[in-house]
Amino acid sequence: MGFRYGVKAWPWLAATVLTSVLIGLLGLLAPSANARATDDGMPRPDSGKGVHGRARVLMLGDSISLGYTPVVKRLLADRVVVDRIFGKDGKPLNNLSSLVARAKLDRWIEEIKRRESIDHWDIIYFNFGLHDLMFIGARGVAVPRSRAEKQAVPPWRYEQNLRWLLGRFGELAAKTIFATTTPGIEAGKMDEDQVELYNFVAKRLMRRAGIEVDDLFAAIRPKTKELQHPGDVHFGKAGYELLGRRVAATIDAALTEAETESRDSGG
User: Fold this and answer.
1) Which of 183, 185, 227, 255 is within CB 3.0–4.6 Å of 239 for a Cys-Cys bond?
2) What backbone phi and psi angles, to 5 degrees, belong to 35?
3) What would the pLDDT profile of 207-222 be if each residue is shown by its tens digit?
4) pTM of this prediction?
5) Could you give the CA distance from residue 157 to residue 221 in angstroms, rounded to a whole number?
6) Comparing C-alpha atoms, which of 211, 30, 32, 40 is closest to residue 119?
7) How far is 63 from 233, CA to CA, in rounded Å?
């Protein structure tokens, strides 16, 4: 049995139909900005495009990395959205060592995915080393080498952890860049020969894996006396500015190279 509208209902019906058509058109014309849907429905940046056409870069590392990240953000603000892991206090998290990263990486990625609706990046830029090479005493805290019972993460385990991380990063980003560990001796809890050893292990692995290395150790080493706090691994403002400029230049060059390759291949 059909339903028959009265003459007075036709203006209302016409308005309803028109409204529905307009809503449908708006839905078609308003896809997520610079994003495509993933299999699980989460928006993901298009290749090389993040917020307002900017690339997305995930930075992971310890307190040194946290120190130069603001410089990178400032210098690449027009081109890059820099992501970091945040702690419960809402501040960027110190990712500590390769051991911690291996244990918590998937949890960190889920946290970013919930917060930023992203789980794939143009570049992952990372470093681990200082907290790996620390000497650890009987109470599980950092101590001078002479009183140490072990290193936090021995070199062979460090290499294993980095290899595992590279495998995951290959799934999460178009490109991975490793930064060498910067120099410094903190209250006798680490030796510079160990920094050089761990950098050797990491660079050897990166070379074999075809991963770009940003040698921050070499970049800052000649100026540590003037830029680094005495007896400390951390730097002053000028030191982080130097490191941040180096990192920003490396990321910028990598993005430019990717864009050039994409154009040349017709992508």
Assistant:
1) 227
2) -140, 155
3) 999 999 999 999 999 9
4) 0.80
5) 26
6) 40
7) 9
